[in-house]
Amino acid sequence: MHSENSALAKYDLSDYRGLQGKNLYRESRFLKRVIERYCASLPNDHVKRIQAHLEGYGELCGGILNQLTEACHKEGKYGEIINYSKTGERIEEIQYSPEQLESRRISYEYGVVNLDCQSDWPYEFHWAHRYALAFLMNLNGEGGVSCPLAMTEGLIYALREIGTEEQKERYLPMLTDPKSTSWFMAGQYVTERVGGSNVAANRTIARKVEGNRYILQGEKWFCSNPGDLWVTTARLEGSNTIGLFLVPRIKRNGELNGFRLVRKKDIIGSKGKVTAEVIYDQVEAEALGRPAHGLANLIRYIINVSRLHVAIGAAGNSHRAVLEIKEYARWRTAYGKKLMEIDVFANEFADLNIEQNVLNFTVFRYLAELNKNSGVARNLLAPLMKFISSSKAGQLTHRAILCMGGNGILGDFSILPRLHNDAIINETWEGTHLLLTGHIISALLRPRIQAEFFELLEQMTSHARSIEYLQPSAQIMDTRVNLLRETLSSYHREQLELNRIPISEELYNVFALAEMLEQAGFDQNPESEYVSLLEGWIQKLTNPGKTSLMPNLQKNTEHKGKILQY
Question: What is the pLDDT of residue 548?
Answer without folding.
Answer: 45
